[in-house]
Amino acid sequence: MDPISLILGAILVGAAKGSGDVASGAVVDAYNGFREALRRRLAGRKPAQTAVEEYTADPDNWRPALETYLQQADAQKDEELLASASAVLSAADPDGASHGKYAVQIYGAQGVQVGDRNIQTNNYRSGP
To answer: Looking at the chain, which terminus has fewer C-beta neighbours within 10 angstroms, N or C?
Structure first.
Protein backbone atom coordinates (compact mmCIF):
# COMPACT_ATOMS: atom_id res chain seq x y z
CA MET A 1 0.00 0.00 0.00
CA ASP A 2 1.42 3.41 -0.85
CA PRO A 3 2.26 5.56 2.19
CA ILE A 4 -0.47 8.20 1.74
CA SER A 5 -3.16 5.53 1.27
CA LEU A 6 -1.87 3.79 4.38
CA ILE A 7 -2.27 6.99 6.40
CA LEU A 8 -5.72 7.72 4.96
CA GLY A 9 -6.84 4.17 5.68
CA ALA A 10 -5.61 4.36 9.26
CA ILE A 11 -7.50 7.61 9.81
CA LEU A 12 -10.79 6.10 8.69
CA VAL A 13 -10.35 2.69 10.30
CA GLY A 14 -9.14 4.22 13.53
CA ALA A 15 -12.01 6.68 13.65
CA ALA A 16 -14.51 3.89 13.00
CA LYS A 17 -13.00 1.14 15.15
CA GLY A 18 -10.71 2.97 17.54
CA SER A 19 -13.31 4.85 19.51
CA GLY A 20 -16.35 4.00 21.51
CA ASP A 21 -17.16 1.34 24.04
CA VAL A 22 -16.85 -1.62 21.68
CA ALA A 23 -13.30 -0.87 20.47
CA SER A 24 -10.62 -3.34 21.49
CA GLY A 25 -7.77 -2.11 23.62
CA ALA A 26 -5.24 -2.88 20.88
CA VAL A 27 -7.10 -0.79 18.31
CA VAL A 28 -7.58 2.11 20.73
CA ASP A 29 -3.90 2.08 21.75
CA ALA A 30 -2.72 1.86 18.14
CA TYR A 31 -5.08 4.62 17.03
CA ASN A 32 -4.05 6.93 19.88
CA GLY A 33 -0.38 6.46 18.99
CA PHE A 34 -1.12 7.08 15.34
CA ARG A 35 -3.13 10.24 16.07
CA GLU A 36 -0.27 11.59 18.18
CA ALA A 37 2.27 10.90 15.41
CA LEU A 38 -0.07 12.54 12.89
CA ARG A 39 -0.51 15.59 15.15
CA ARG A 40 3.27 15.99 15.40
CA ARG A 41 3.69 15.70 11.62
CA LEU A 42 0.97 18.30 10.96
CA ALA A 43 1.93 20.66 13.80
CA GLY A 44 1.57 24.28 12.74
CA ARG A 45 -0.54 23.33 9.70
CA LYS A 46 -4.05 24.27 10.80
CA PRO A 47 -5.71 23.64 7.39
CA ALA A 48 -4.19 20.15 7.32
CA GLN A 49 -5.38 19.41 10.85
CA THR A 50 -8.86 20.59 9.92
CA ALA A 51 -8.78 18.41 6.80
CA VAL A 52 -8.06 15.33 8.95
CA GLU A 53 -11.18 15.96 11.01
CA GLU A 54 -13.31 16.74 7.97
CA TYR A 55 -12.00 13.64 6.18
CA THR A 56 -13.37 11.36 8.89
CA ALA A 57 -16.83 12.85 8.37
CA ASP A 58 -16.75 13.14 4.55
CA PRO A 59 -13.91 11.09 3.04
CA ASP A 60 -15.01 11.37 -0.58
CA ASN A 61 -14.95 15.15 -0.65
CA TRP A 62 -11.95 15.71 1.64
CA ARG A 63 -9.57 13.03 0.32
CA PRO A 64 -7.94 15.17 -2.41
CA ALA A 65 -7.24 18.06 -0.04
CA LEU A 66 -5.94 15.81 2.71
CA GLU A 67 -3.69 13.91 0.28
CA THR A 68 -2.18 17.23 -0.79
CA TYR A 69 -1.65 18.38 2.80
CA LEU A 70 -0.03 15.07 3.75
CA GLN A 71 2.32 15.24 0.77
CA GLN A 72 3.24 18.84 1.55
CA ALA A 73 4.07 17.78 5.11
CA ASP A 74 6.23 14.87 3.79
CA ALA A 75 4.06 12.46 5.76
CA GLN A 76 4.96 9.72 3.27
CA LYS A 77 8.57 9.92 4.56
CA ASP A 78 7.76 9.82 8.29
CA GLU A 79 8.70 6.31 9.37
CA GLU A 80 7.11 6.65 12.82
CA LEU A 81 3.83 7.85 11.33
CA LEU A 82 3.80 5.05 8.75
CA ALA A 83 4.59 2.41 11.37
CA SER A 84 1.80 3.67 13.61
CA ALA A 85 -0.66 3.77 10.67
CA SER A 86 0.24 0.18 9.86
CA ALA A 87 -0.27 -0.76 13.51
CA VAL A 88 -3.81 0.66 13.42
CA LEU A 89 -4.73 -1.34 10.33
CA SER A 90 -3.13 -4.49 11.70
CA ALA A 91 -4.93 -4.17 15.03
CA ALA A 92 -8.28 -3.46 13.35
CA ASP A 93 -7.94 -6.21 10.73
CA PRO A 94 -5.53 -8.91 11.96
CA ASP A 95 -6.66 -11.37 9.27
CA GLY A 96 -5.99 -8.91 6.46
CA ALA A 97 -2.65 -7.96 7.98
CA SER A 98 -1.57 -11.59 8.31
CA HIS A 99 -2.35 -12.14 4.62
CA GLY A 100 -0.29 -9.11 3.56
CA LYS A 101 -3.21 -6.83 2.76
CA TYR A 102 -1.39 -3.78 4.11
CA ALA A 103 2.07 -4.59 2.79
CA VAL A 104 2.01 -3.53 -0.85
CA GLN A 105 5.16 -2.10 -2.44
CA ILE A 106 5.08 -0.50 -5.86
CA TYR A 107 8.13 0.90 -7.63
CA GLY A 108 8.28 2.92 -10.83
CA ALA A 109 4.62 2.38 -11.68
CA GLN A 110 2.08 4.72 -13.22
CA GLY A 111 -1.67 4.66 -12.81
CA VAL A 112 -1.68 2.16 -9.96
CA GLN A 113 -4.32 2.19 -7.29
CA VAL A 114 -4.33 -0.04 -4.25
CA GLY A 115 -7.23 -0.59 -1.91
CA ASP A 116 -10.79 -1.73 -1.66
CA ARG A 117 -13.72 -0.31 -3.65
CA ASN A 118 -11.68 2.33 -5.52
CA ILE A 119 -12.50 4.21 -8.69
CA GLN A 120 -9.73 5.55 -10.88
CA THR A 121 -9.48 7.43 -14.15
CA ASN A 122 -6.11 7.71 -15.91
CA ASN A 123 -5.30 10.15 -18.69
CA TYR A 124 -1.89 9.64 -20.24
CA ARG A 125 -0.28 11.97 -22.71
CA SER A 126 2.20 10.78 -25.26
CA GLY A 127 5.56 12.48 -25.59
CA PRO A 128 6.33 15.29 -28.04
So the answer is: C
* Residue-number span of the structural domain to which 19 is assigned: 3-98
Could you list the pLDDT tens digit for every one of the 128 residues in the chain? 789 999 999 999 888 875 555 557 888 888 999 999 999 999 999 999 999 999 999 999 999 999 999 999 999 999 899 989 988 888 887 665 444 444 545 555 556 555 555 677 777 677 66
The long-range contacts involving 30-34, CB below 8 angstroms and separated by at least 24 positions, are: 30/84, 30/87, 30/88, 30/90, 30/91, 30/92, 31/88, 31/91, 33/84, 33/87, 34/10, 34/81, 34/84, 34/85, 34/87, 34/88
Residue at 126 is within a domain:
no
